[in-house]
Design brief:
The chain is mainly alpha-helical. The protein is about 50% helix and about 0% strand. The chain contains two helices and no strands.
């Protein structure tokens, strides 16, 4: 199994805090990309209430594909 990081670099961080921080960086990138494509996205920001209580939402691939197609169509008409 290949490792993609070194958790030893974050000795005082909880794994859930690192995951929340990483997700917010990815969400920011997705929001910026969507804005450039004139797409509309729901708020993707992840707020960690407790390191022991984590919730997440999964978007259906069909919905994501539909949103990408709508963005492509909007960009073609601009």
């Amino acid at each position: 199994m290949k490792e993609y990081g070194d958790l030893d670099k974050f000795p005082n961080s909880e794994l859930t805090e690192l995951a929340a921080s990483a997700w917010n960086k990815v969400a920011d990138l997705l929001q910026q990309t969507a804005k450039k494509l004139n797409a509309e996205l729901v708020d993707l920001e992840f707020e960690l209430e407790s390191i022991y209580n984590v919730r997440y939402q999964i978007y259906p691939p069909s919905w994501i594909k539909e949103q990408i197609e709508l963005a492509k169509h909007r960009n073609q008409t601009i």
